[in-house]
Amino acid sequence: MSDSPGSGPVPVPPPRTTLRRRLAELRGPAVVPHPLDARALAALAANPGCRRRALLDGAGVDKAALATALGSPAPFGQSQFAFMRGNAFEARVKADGGTELLRLLHDRLGGQAPAPVPGEVLVPDLSAAGPEGRTARTALALREATEAGAWALLDHPLLALEVAGSPAYLEPDAVVVRPDGRWTVVEIKSFPMIDGSADAAKVGAAARQAAVYVLALERVAARTPGAEVSDRVLLVCPKDFSNLPAASVVDVRKQLSVTRRQLTRLTRIEDIAAALPEGTTFDLERCSGEELTAAVESVSAAYAPECLAACELAFHCRSRTRAAGAVEALGRSVRGELGALTTVGAVLAAAHGEAGDPADPTVAALRRAAELRAEALAGAGLPAARGARAGAGGGGGGTALSPAGVPAGDGGPGPDGVKSPDGVESEG
Hints:
This protein has helices at about 15-25, 40-45, 50-60, 65-70, 80-95, 95-110, 130-150, 200-220, 255-265, 270-275, 290-295, 315-325, 330-340, 345-350, 360-380, and strands at about 150-155, 160-165, 165-170, 175, 180-190, 230, 230-240, 245-250. The protein is globular and about 80 Å long. Strands 1, 4, 5, 6, 7 and 8 form a 6-stranded mixed beta sheet that branches. The two termini are about 45 Å apart. The protein is an alpha/beta fold.
């Protein structure tokens, strides 16, 4: 709403204390908020229309515990071995004041800056009380390092980013300040870099995560004279199958643009919370399974098969989508092609001439797909009645449905195929 004359009063957001109190009520007054990290933000930015995830993440609800209470646990997580291996590799990369890390960065991104001299690199102490204190200490260290015009290594700094009216605290592996005032995000991962390249899917997930850090750093750089945040990040991984570090430069301009645009599209959390029924809470200690289900269903979701690799509640949302026969289970592209046909039943009825306007291009494409399937079955000597209502295609693309009217494969990994919320099997 604009503030031009005649447009009506401009809505005033509620005080921050009121929002925090409301979010505490939603997760449970005695429950410690679950941190909203860069992985969760990257996944949220990929699906900004999901009000359910935006509210639960903003309130700090533990979605993994909530999914278990709902009877649809998500097999996300990292093995203890991978966790220990990642920590050991990160410690090796940062050993001796980050000498090896800074050497790798200077080789890849140093430009005309003089090489860092061991022992002369600034490594500020970032310890402080609480997240607000650590965030302020990080901002101060970045300003001091920029003013000093020297190499500086910030180990696990804490950054703040406001998402849909709620603060999120982010902790990158490292941020390096160069003598020319440029800040570079460093991501240290435990997946290998073989012959100079790593798995594309894992690199993509790391790039999306790093883009969130860059976005948060830009907020600090805007208040720091002479500072500039690089849109290229340094990805450090084990070389081949050893524990020696290798580095690669990743351009995150595309991920940064998408993340910035998607986060601005998120509905403000207080608006979502205000639309909830009175007394709604996600407190696992106080609510039964039925009450939790009702609370979750009171917030609209935007399920897509991609959620299976990005959200702990995806299996619950998938079961609800399938039970309702919604075409969202087929994927976003198919959902877009089907237009006004929002259920699998409506798609099948249109494909077999039982409903729908023949002049509708979508309906015409579905009926043509059903005819081609019937011809193929007849040519193979198979009875046309077998799965007759299971072969309707979507939007002319021939998307197959199972005999039960449920997508034969919804594009996401099954319960045993999901490694971690961001699709990366092992992260450092």
